[in-house]
What does this fold into?
Amino acid sequence: MDIDTAERLAGQIESKELTLRDLFASDPKRAEKMTVSAAGWTLDYSKNLVDEPTLKLLLKLAEKADLKAEIERMFTGEHINRTENRAVLHTALRSAKTSGLVVDGQDVYADVHKVLGQMGDFSDLVRSGKWKGATGKRIKYVVNIGIGGSDLGPAMAYQALLPYSKRSIRCFFVSNVDATHLAETLLQVKADQTLFIIASKTFTTQETMTNARTARAWLVERLGEAAVSRHFVAVSTNTAKVAEFGIDPANMFVFWDWVGGRYSLPSAIGLSLMIAIGRANFKRLLSGYEAMDKHFRTAAFRRNLPVLMALLGILYSNGYGADSYAVLPYDQYLARFPAYLQQLDMESNGKSVDRSGEPVDYMTGPIVWGEPGTNGQHAFYQLIHQGTRLIPADFIGFCRSHNPLGDHHDKLMANFFAQTEALAFGKTAEQCRAEGVPEELVPFKTFEGNHPTNTLLADELTPKTFGALIALYEHKVFVQGILWDIFSFDQWGVELGKVLAGKILKELSDPALPLDHDSSTNALIARYRAAKR
It folds into this structure.
């Protein structure tokens, strides 16, 4: 990456001593020029630390990286995940096309729609009550057991789309190998009315299969061995392991190596969500994804939402040295969205070598965090407003609420608009004095402003706008990976801990085994062994 350009651009803005107050004063049409819309979303990026010359130079970064060609390589199925020699085709999961994309000898679109049809048929059976448990009772509880992308996506989406869900069916999501997660869930369900979805591509993932076996034992104790096939289904590719577990392979929903876990919500990993919201709403979700996909693939970079957000992120990370950014959804249904983006962004672009395997000498993936408004305003906004760190923020809001109680939504959105205004323009010492603030308090009540934000606004949180929102951030992450010259679709960093954990697990269960770790780890394991006796 031409990292010097980002640093130079930030330096140009700072050397001009331009503030957002100045930028808006000098151009009455700034907001109009820096507002773009696509796929049901409007992005106002005018409250960013950029002027028109800076923006043009940022756009040249995308051109220099041959971004247009890189986008086509992804959409057409080239093996851009080179370290694993795989295509990257999560966009195929939401295409309305039913055939015509052949990759590695397989018609990808045809395979996708075959599984979508299987998912739809099964979800119809569960929702209608035609799929019954071993005792003849209909399913009222769905427990999705997965981890990482097999959990974060459907868990976040279930909460986001709760207004569209069938309320007579409750969904739960178990991921942590900590027994508390499963135990507390099982206290809330009844065995004869519960469907377990085991989501593991290999059906060997340690955390997932530990929870799955415990759930199986819990069910068998109450309903007997023969009940397993009526209360368990699988999202996997390992037919032999699925059958060995006691699940009918006919109730196995497949997905593919070319979709990473953090991109897999539109695949069979979304089965629990489809059961909750129904086949038609799931299709609307996919159409939202596809609308943003088409925009990303075809729109000029100057009007391209994912590209613009990615370039601004590059400017702050590599130009201004911002090490994090906040995602602040002003909708309680999106409470888990920042956590979802943490995996999407930090697992994708948390890399320290470039695509040639050489160490990078610049910052790559940022730290992603956030909470829904207005909760965050009473927690960490103080640091954003008056702290010493630059923290760019994305504000996400909706014009209409699913719960129009009194003036709640107006109050919520008043805070939404007020916060971006306050962060941008602050409050000067002169304004404080004009309000009669005592001189000794003026420094404490002065707000510098000049804190950058993006505002993302849609009419309403629907399956379609929700799908488009996820796709927007997926493509933003992809663009930044290209500009940083890193591979965004592998995650080798998670493997080392897994290997060491396997070795230590044996040492925890057999105190006779010698310990040959570092002195700290040896001492900690010894203390655990002693306390466990």
In short: The mean pLDDT is 95.
